[in-house]
Structure formats: structure tokens, C-alpha cells
Amino acid sequence: MSQDPVELTRGLLTTPAGLRNGFLDVLGESTTAPAPTFAQRAMNSPLVATVYERLWRPTSFYMASGITARAEQRRAASALRLSTARLLLDVACGPGNFTGSLAEQLADGGVAVGFDISEPMLGRAVLDNSTARTSYVRGDARSLPFAEGTFDAVCCFGALYLMPEPFRVVREMVRVLAPGGAIAVLTSYAPEVLPIRFALNAGARLIGLTMFDRDAFVDCFASAGLVEIEQQTQRALQFVAARKPG
């Protein structure tokens, strides 16, 4: 797998894509990302794209979970079994900080494909986190433009609570995951203590976020036939990983 990562990724796509600003685009210039809520509009802001991984995400996620970005990346690499994976799909990759970091931990010749709908985010990813092991694609995660069983590992960290159809996105992630492959998500968690749950849900609704309960993704993974499901909860975040039977 020594070919250019962009051309390798183009070969994986089931939808024609133009190369624009360093990323492959299956949506085209006339298509804009749906952004009805404050949080979704923020993710399509060039300013937010610039500061997101340097300041916003590390600070907010540490407050929400007590876990540093480096610890997150180590946990992700372990859960996704990256040392034996060659193709990784990072859904809602944002500016690519996780994509670039996880790509370095893939097996020899491995490539990580960062996937997002936001042009500003992908622009930052190309500028800040492009390597010989990464490529980036713009598209809608509700209909991933890849064939069934394409990727050895699939992840989505810190984005499902922003999406209008998060479980449809997860089903797509499972579809493109190869047999024996690993999947992991990091998303919001509403603790079972009622006053805390009520406060978090109320605050999240104001800015257009969804708070998920303990069973949401465990049940989703189980209903999709995944096995070895593991869940960790920390404050207002949950990490759920599983494997597709081989």
C-alpha cells in the first residue's frame, strides 16, 4: 500500500469525487452542510476550525471527562487494534488531529481516511494534519461513499451528539467495517442521577446537542450483531467499542 493516499482513497470511493483544496469531495461545491443548530453552525465556522483542536476540544473534553487528548488517543488506538489495521475511517474527523495521530499507529503501509461534511474543518485537516498516511474526504456520514467491509477500523469521536441522525451514521459505520474489524465511538453521556441528567439535557438542547443514555450505543452495537462490546463512562462522555465478527 505504497501508493499516494489520496489516490488510494479515490479508488475506495463508490461515488465520483473531485479533488478540491487537498481533499476529495463527493458533495460538490454547490452543496452546503445542513447546520440548523448553533453547535452545527459552529462546526462549519472557519474560526472554530482554526481553534477547535488547539483550544476548544482539549479544554471542553477534559472538563467533560477528566481525560486528556493524549490519553484519549491511546485508548482509541488500543480499542481499534490499530497495530494490525491497514485502513482506518475517522468519521467526523474535524481538523484531523486524531486522524493524523492514529494514522501513525497503523500497520506498515496503513492509511487513515478522515471524513467530514465541513469544508473549513477539512481545510484545516489538509493544512495541519496531512501525512503520507492520511487522506481526507468530504461527504455526508449518513451515506458513506464506501463499499461494505472496506475498513479494518472505524471510529467517530466527539461528533455523534451533533448529528441529526446519529444511529443512521453508526449503522453506516458498521456497514463499511470489515469482518473482524473494530469500531469505537466517543460521545455524550447523561448520567442516571436525575438532577444532573436533567441539567445536562436542558443545557444541551439549548445549543442543539443530544445527550445519550448508558444503553443507547451498547444496544445499537448489539442489534447490529457486533461482539465484545465494551463501554466506559466519565462524567458527561462515554466511550463504546466493539468488534464485527470475522
UniProtKB/TrEMBL annotation:
Protein's UniProt keywords contain Protein transport: no
Q: Which InterPro entries does the UniProt record give?
A: Methyltransf_11 (IPR013216), SAM-dependent_MTases_sf (IPR029063)
Keywords recorded for this protein, A-Z: Methyltransferase, Transferase
GO molecular function list: S-adenosylmethionine-dependent methyltransferase activity
Which processes are annotated in GO (biological process)?
methylation
Quote any Pfam family the record assigns: Methyltransf_11
Q: Give the protein's recorded name.
A: Similarity with UbiE/COQ5 methyltransferase
